[in-house]
């Protein structure tokens, strides 16, 4: 199975007990199985596992929201370009950037009664779908489509429905 190439930068706050790189790559492969436009090794994603302060600063600068959030996604390609990029045999094209906040992710996982690893996997899937052009803020139909893809990708990984 092919998936986007992930260039991963991990802040030490995430710890070393989990192989975050392997987790992210499994999430990308599962997402590519349910969103075939991502099933191309010539798409590149920058994934940063950051601390809350870094995500807070980015959220304030780029979204005018003065707080950290669980995941930020910054697409570099329009949806039409993502669909076209898959057929390009050239050098990898930058799909975009994903940044996860460790503290927010950890707190949300605790609130949901799940592991940080499971929640981080969901956030990587969620963010990759955003980079592919899916959105949950443009209406109920789009939100349902995106959530359905998330459920399918997570099920491939043996993870429960995060929306149940």
Automatic annotation (TrEMBL):
Localization annotation: Cytoplasm
Residues annotated for Zn(2+) binding in this entry: 126, 130, 136
SUPFAM superfamilies from the UniProt entry: Metalloproteases ('zincins'), catalytic domain (SSF55486)
Pfam family, one: YbeY
Alphabetic keyword roster: Cytoplasm, Endonuclease, Hydrolase, Metal-binding, Nuclease, Ribosome biogenesis, rRNA processing, Zinc
Database matches in PROSITE patterns: UPF0054
Main subcellular localisation: cytoplasm
Cofactor notes: Binds 1 zinc ion.
Enzyme Commission number, as recorded: 3.1.-.-
Necessary cofactors: Zn(2+)
Family statement drawn from the similarity comment of this UniProt entry: Belongs to the endoribonuclease YbeY family.
Protein task: Single strand-specific metallo-endoribonuclease involved in late-stage 70S ribosome quality control and in maturation of the 3' terminus of the 16S rRNA.
The protein's name in its UniProt record: Endoribonuclease YbeY
């Amino acid at each position: 199975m092919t998936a986007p190439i992930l260039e991963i930068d991990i802040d030490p706050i995430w710890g070393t007990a989990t192989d975050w790189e392997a987790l992210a790559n499994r999430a990308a492969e599962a997402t590519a199985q349910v969103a075939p436009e991502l099933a191309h090794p010539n798409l590149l994603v920058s994934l940063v596992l950051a601390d809350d302060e870094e995500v807070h600063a980015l959220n304030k600068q780029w979204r005018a929201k003065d707080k950290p959030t669980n995941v930020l996604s910054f697409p570099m390609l329009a949806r039409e370009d993502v669909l076209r990029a898959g057929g390009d045999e050239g050098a990898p094209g930058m799909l975009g950037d994903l940044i996860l906040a460790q503290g927010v992710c950890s707190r949300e996982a605790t609130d949901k009664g799940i592991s940080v690893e499971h929640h981080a996997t969901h956030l990587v899937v969620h963010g990759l779908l955003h980079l592919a052009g899916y959105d949950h803020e443009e209406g109920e139909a789009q939100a349902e489509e995106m959530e359905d893809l998330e459920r399918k990708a997570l099920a491939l990984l043996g993870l429960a429905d995060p929306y149940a």
